[in-house]
Each structure stands twice: as structure tokens, then as C-alpha cells.
Amino acid sequence: NAIGVTMRDALVEAFDLALADMSIERVELSGTPGCFSTGGDVEEFGMVSDPAVAHWIRSLRLPAVRAARLAHRLHVHIDGAVVGAGIEIAAFATRITATSRSWFHLPELHYGLLPGAGGTVSIPRRIGRRRAAYMMLSARRIPAGQALSWGLIDAIAE
Known about the structure:
Layout: E1 2-3, H1 5-20, E2 27-30, E3 35-37, E4 39-40, H2 51-60, H3 63-70, E5 74-78, E6 81-83, H4 85-90, E7 95-98, E8 103-105, H5 119-127, H6 129-138, E9 142-143, H7 144-150, E10 155-156
Parallel strand pairs: 1-4, 2-5, 3-6, 5-7, 6-8, 7-10
Antiparallel strand pairs: 8-9
Helix pairs in contact: 1-3, 5-6
């Protein structure tokens, strides 16, 4: 469940459909059991030599922009790992549930990056700037119980 070009385009297409069709009352997003998302596809990192061009390309098809606009109809269910862009996009949702075995991780700092899939906006909105900074700068995994107490998720549901 890496968010590479194919996954990113599929999310954008689905979100664009929901944004265009107001009869779609709810959009539910879930991943493969045991791993909601491994985040951005690291195999695609560095494929474009100019960082500005790479950023521009990603910005054109950024699921987070659509998720933010769709937030009031977006419901996410997480099972297992949710890394980087996976939680950054999901955090825009109005409702997030997760299984008790879920965990949340922002490893971007290890790559010399900042969360670039909307997490600098979506995560602080849910858990505040200090906790978001802790997640981003420590790169520590946050278990489901802690995510619930912080407000990163709304409920634990198996």
C-alpha cells in the first residue's frame, strides 16, 4: 500500500468523483488488513533530478488537497501500519477508526524530508502543534491507544 504514482492517481480520481457528485454522501477509505499504508513509495524518491520540478509534479496530483475538501464526508478505517503520507492524508477525515494493533509513524526526517503529503496541516489540526512536532521530529511509532488519547483517531474498532 505504498503511495506511488498509481495509488496517488487512483486516490485523486476517487476523491475527484466524490467532490463532483454531491449524491455521494460518504467516502470510506481503508487499506489491506495489517497495513493501511506504507506511505510514499521510496522507490520513486529521486526519480526527477530537479527537486522543484518533482514538487510541482506531485502538487498537481496531491490526494491531500482533495481529502481536505472532502473531509466532512471522508471516513477512514486503519488496520495495522500507517506510515508517512498514509496518516497525513487520513488525518483530514472527519472520522478515523483503527484496530488496536494499528500504529502511526512519520519517518520523513530519516530521509531528510518533512511530511509533504498534507501532514503539516492535517495532523496538527487533530493533535495540536506540539504533539505533531513530536511525531515528526522523533520519528517514533505511536500505538493505537496513544493515537486515540491524543485525538489522532476517533475510536478503536476491530
